Amino acid sequence: MVSTARPTTTATVPKSLNWPRWFVAPLLALLATVLALSFGRYPLPAWETLRFLAASTGLTSMEPDRYALLHNLIVEIRLPRILAAILVGASLSVSGASYQALFRNPLVSPGLLGVLAGASAGAALGIILGGNWLLVQASAFLGGLAAVGIGVGIAHLFGGGSLVMLILGGILSGALFTSLLSVVKYLADPYNQLPAIVYWLMGSLGQVNLNDMAWAAVPMVAGIVLLCLLGRALDALAMGDDEAQALGVPVRTVRLVTIATATLVSALTVSIAGMIGWIGLIVPHIARLLVGPGNARLLPAAASLGAVFLLCADSLARNLFATELPIGIVTELLGIPVFLIVLSRVRRAWAQ
Amino acid sequence: MIEARDIHFAYRGRRVLTGATLSLAPGELVCLLGANGAGKSTLLKILLGLLKPAAGKVSLGGTPIAGMDRRKLAQCLAYVPQVHAAPFPYTVREVALMGRLPVTGMFRAAHAADHQAVQRALDHLAIGHLADRPYTEVSGGERQLALIARALAQDARLLVMDEPLAGLDYGHQVRLLARLESLAEEGYGVLMTTHDPDQPLHGCQRVAMLIDGCIASVGTPADVLTPEAIYQLYGIRVDLLRAADGNGLAFRPTGRSTACLP
Q1: What is the pLDDT of residue A9?
Q2: What CATH number is associated with residue A124?
Q3: Residue A77 above 60 pLDDT?
Q4: Looking at the domain assignment, is residue A321 inside a domain?
Q5: Same domain, yes or no, for A159 and A255?
Q6: What is the domain extent for residue A247?
Q7: How many CB pairs under 8 A join A and B?
Q8: In this structure, are A284 and A312 located in the same domain?
Q9: Which residues of chain B have pLDDT under 70?
Q10: pLDDT tens-digit map of A320-333
Q11: Which of A275, A298, A330 is the last residue of a domain?
């Protein structure tokens, strides 16, 4: 329609390419990583960390004593939890953004299909069954998968797998596992097991070691990459199933793969670090403000920003007080004001 | 050319289509007219291969579409849905760029050629100036044009549109209908559904009327759009107002003469 009021000149280059905004998020993630490696009980200047990193790759040399000290501090003490923060933050944010596109709802988070509730109940069960670290992780993971299986099962049994029924199934299965968690808490020994369950549920990055990380990192990174690759298909899906299918996107396959991958990745975060809320909901919104809603760019940006957010939260948790705060509490406290700021920016788009 | 032959379809035991036949060729604007709930959208979805008919065949250029590769099909046949609200503020350009998905596949990023195709589609519909505005913030008529631009970016020659004029104001309706006519003149085949019998009176090559799950009649507007047919379709007695040259202009319910007005 030719409008007389507006100029009809057409830009030949998309406006979004004028300055590379997609570049910002990975850069912030690098910066946050270096800073997080420097902060701690034994603070290091950031350039010292950089000098150590350069020395460890053989670019520069460093006195052996100093190198050994920094190696112990940076690689053995800080690196595992920093890697964990990056992976967990990126996983939760990418799965949150994928779920939001898939369910066409910007208020959806990775907990939607009951995965977080299921993983918590599983972890609590693992703690009262013996408390072996591996058992807790395995049962957290299986609990998460079981919860999603039940949610998706309800949706397919009663509603042919429609979106509304998937959400309803997730709510039901989340409620089921929340009540199972209460049962386990009630049965737990109140002196040792109950506090262990409560601390687990508050979330912590303090207990990870490089071995745990090694086995979890492979599926998590693979899952994040796969979700990022599905970005364009998720855009089409966000417009509607029929439209996506008419555009040649295999809707059922993409939906199944996305749910399975996002579930796997977020269940693994619970195995590593317990329940960490809010990130999967907020970070996609921040990323959308930065690079726009197109998922091909949004998902990688959300991964980077999720890492930044959790690194910041973890640095606060470690350094704010003499004792370490549970990270789940920090993300919630940080998350609410950040969400309010984001809300004031995006309200216009949602008001329709 | 796409053709749906003798289509039967039931939705949860309720028969919607009982032997409907409809075709669309390049260069024609075809109107599918029917009452609310008559099964117009169902027939479109079957034509597009989004729903499987219980009986009957849909073929594209003689080949059945049932086993056809969806991406190949999408490069011949595009779906333009009724205007809707997107959950995320994609720009008009991003919406049109989704039309390149069948060409690039879902894993390959869009190249310069794809961006050029999108720009051509936007310019063709004279909405180039809207390219970087959010789809959620432009008017209903502009959204419909963005969705048509997506279909043009698909390189498809056959466009299937579900109620493209519904919900638009009068000005947008008239201008969009003129736009669809000119697309048909350029060689696109355009099939649109509507429930307004006035719309297909002008510019349409063929009108098909969907009554009781069958195409009751199909032909030129002059042949099909008679007061008897409208009575059959809606149960309303109407008069056809004609221009001096005898062409139909508009329908008016019988007995509601303007002469009665003070």
Answers
A1: 39
A2: 1.10.3470.10
A3: yes
A4: yes
A5: yes
A6: 108-275
A7: 120
A8: yes
A9: 255-262
A10: 888 888 888 888 88
A11: A275
Interface probe for A, chosen from B80, B88, B108 (most Cβ of A below 10 Å), is: B88
How distant is the Cα of B176 from the closest Cα of chain A, in angstroms? 8
Instruction: Give pLDDT, residue B262.
Output: 46
The answer to whether residues B92 and B150 touch, using CB atoms and an 8 Å cutoff, is no
Chain A stretch 167-226, residues whose beta carbon is closer than 8 A to a beta carbon of chain B: none
Q: Are residues A225 and A151 in the same domain?
A: yes
Tell me what pLDDT residue B260 has. Answer: 47
Across A12-33, average pLDDT: 71
Smallest CA-to-CA distance from B145 within B196, B194, B182, B200 is with: B182
Sheet with B189-194, strands from edge to edge, namely B77-80, B158-161, B189-194, B29-34, B206-211, B214-219
Residues A242, A131 share a domain? yes
Count of all residues that appear for chain B in the document: 262
- Of A275, A294, A317, the residue that ends a domain is A275
Q: Which DSSP symbol is given to A72?
A: I
Given A10, A15, A243, which is nearest B123 (Cβ)? A10
pLDDT per residue over A154-190, tens digit each?
888 887 767 788 888 889 999 999 999 999 999 998 8
Task: State residue A2's pLDDT score.
Answer: 39
Yes or no, beta carbons of A10 and B128 under 8 Å apart: yes
Taking CB atoms and an 8 Å cutoff, what residues of chain B touch A293?
88-90, 94
